[in-house]
């Protein structure tokens, strides 16, 4: 056999290295992080802290795009139909898994059109009223709503918090009307303005107005009192034993996104959220970082979807 020339050997070596170079270059363009809720809410806050710290780790710009509307469905649908090349992700709350149980029709299949990347963080929810409202705990709230039906409305910005409000409605035998909001920030504004009886939201979103004295927290859904709200009782303390529930902030990508892209993003997100700086940022907003692996998270998604479907049926929440 004729030996290879120096030039031929160099070309073959370059060709052999190309697949490895292409893989190492991922991501090779700007990364989109879609938030299907309004700016200023809890999900948006986490997304922006995350994007800022992912940019140097990924070597690419990471932009946050707010696409609110229809309980997060509009923005989530954009991601379902985006190219599955590992450069588009969506950060959603637990409503992503609740929506199939409360919506008659979705423009996508929640379990087939997405693949999970990781659960970023979890946080308890909080029951909120105007600062002048006389109730200081969930039982006092229920008593006042029964006494004055004109205040018997509750606001929520997505179907997870709507479900928690419906659970309270059922457990306390109330007849409370649901008012939908496009995001946590406008809901907080209406609670502060006394335009809705009470609201169910996250501490991440509610914290600024609680600190400003414009709204008041009267119950949290965590197992123990929050260090942020040491004087606010838990729902369990108020006798609602099955209302220890948490909202999760989770990252998904379009189905068929390359596995290496999912694994890379999961590893970088996990690294970011477990830095002391990010842990402090999350803790200040009553959120706990998670960052579980791709396979573990996708297994968890299936079990949680079944759980929320059962709770929706038990609560009697009607499909829209």
Automatic annotation (TrEMBL):
| Protein's UniProt name | Tripartite tricarboxylate transporter substrate binding protein
Where is the organism placed in the taxonomic lineage, from the top? Bacteria, Pseudomonadati, Pseudomonadota, Betaproteobacteria, Burkholderiales
Q: Which family, according to UniProt? A: Belongs to the UPF0065 (bug) family.
The signal sequence is 1-24
InterPro entries reported in the protein's UniProt record: BUG, Bug_dom1
| Stored Pfam families | TctC (PF03401)
Q: Which organism is it from?
A: Ramlibacter monticola
Q: Which SUPFAM superfamilies match?
A: Periplasmic binding protein-like II
Q: Which UniProt keywords apply?
A: Signal
